Amino acid sequence: MVSHAQWKLARDRKVAESISEGEDSAESAERVRRRLELDLAWDLGQAVYDRRTELGLAQTELARRARMSQPQVSKLELGGSMPTVPLLARLAHALNADFGLTPLSEGVRVSFIPHDPARTEAGAEPPSSEHASAPAPASAAEAEADASAERTASTG
Predict the structure, then answer these.
(1) What SS3 class is residue 21?
(2) Residue 68 φ then ψ, to 5°
(3) pLDDT in tens, 96-127
């Protein structure tokens, strides 16, 4: 079986060869776009792999938790697919983490941020910068109204 490092080196060699083949600016722009897309897929797969191994999970266990098949997890970890947003949400939940994409000058940084164990054990959601400065509701009715408004906002 090919390791992540060997696969990435082979993929990078192939991409580099295709980028150096032509000098046409439109064609080169498409190659650069494709390279960035491949880099994102690889980085995403690496982030899933890193978090899964950090938790000591087998691919089959992650697949079960995320309602996927083991071959789908394997393909994702090898950078062979780009998951949908709902799948990313399922993966984050299965990995007990929040999913983050951070735009950079060229490309995007992908990360799974582990939930705080103390908050997770208590059944609370991880802190969000959006809610960090919000004052606490004065009553249970206000708390329920706030939660209802957040659910409506998050579902559209």
Answers:
(1) helix
(2) -130, 175
(3) 999 998 888 877 888 899 987 665 455 544 44
